[in-house]
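Q: Is it fine to ask for two folds in a single conversation?
A: Yes, each is treated on its own. Send the first.
Q: Here.
A: Result:
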Amino acid sequence: VAAAADVAALVVRNKNAAEEARARSQELRLMLETARALASERDLRRLFHRLHRLLGGVLDASTFWVALGSWEQGLMTIPYCVDHYRVLDVVEPMPLQGSLCGQVFREGVPLLMRTPEDWKPYPVIMHGDANSEDVVSALVVPMSIGARTIGVISVQSSRAHAYSERDRDLVVAVAEQAAIAVENSQAVVQADQRARELKLLSE
């Protein structure tokens, strides 16, 4: 009996080790593919689409959105939003105050919700957040460069316990890379615009 128990325990340990190795391999592949995508893409909408596809390969990203914030205006815009696999155009910006992504933007701390109970501290959810009745699990993470936050990324699911702390840490790492790519893209756009303005002035 003892020998059989030892064998069973060994089988479980080996299975867990194999699952851990597969998960780690997936994460490393995602980070490498993310780095390649961000290095080669300057169009923000295409960039966010590629991020969505990459994350969707390792976790439930049927609902996914990106919000970029402005401290000066006190608003957040949503340049990319997919709700249950449907791409939506969210035109209206939302305030930093009174919204879930606004809270993450202001505090720079990721949120992980896995059950309806986890949502109770956040009774007011504004348009652009997890406002679908069937959203149960969600990850809302800041896009940060050092101590400065420029936006928020969220993935959401209708399943309870769809995300783990490990998923949260993975999305945080992806969001940090995305924040750098967004700033680089915006800097290129601004430089091109300035070059056009100077050219017009010189003519």
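Q: Second one now.
A: Result:
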Amino acid sequence: ALAILMNADIVVAKSTLSAEEAGHMAALAKMGQIVFFSTAPIIGAMFPIISERYDKGSKHVHILLRATILSIVISGIILTFIYIFPKFTVSVLFGSQFADTASQLSMMGYAMMAFTIGNLYVSYFLSIRENRFIILLWIVVLLHIYLLANFHDSVHQIVTVDATSFSIMAGSSLIWYLVGKRKRLRQLVHLDERLWRLLFKGI
């Protein structure tokens, strides 16, 4: 599912845009992936640690929080640099012939930042065996494909679709986590209430 989200834009660009525009889209995607791959080690390190702690029943939320903050900071630094120096970034990575893509680079960087946060939480859910989220992830994939099928007339439209879909992915991941955490808190509260009732009943 994640592979489809990351590569669908290139496939659509190659089949619907001119060769030049498709090349620009491919360059944008590669530049955007700098954000993703710069935080990949964080996710790779987080997964086994949380998985092991979850199996042992140990606390692990602080690890997720640290991974989230670190990913946002690293992504934010790269995105800020891209925003301030878009033409310089494009020229260094791909040459002046791709200068036209500079105007879309910030949007693509933001899209990949959102994808990174979404991917972080997908990895977290998998590490704690929360497989139900996969259903929601596939809904996002289908939405992404639908949007690309209807909005692909220019590089700008495709990048906007990426930003929209990845934002929905990140947002739904955070909401899913918060809802799940709220349910667990309610369960703890109800458990405490039952314990108090048993204690008072015995007095």
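Q: Anything structural to flag on that second result?
A: Two points. The chain has a mean pLDDT of 82. Helices lie at 2-16, 19-56, 61-84, 86-94, 102-127, 133-150, 155-202.
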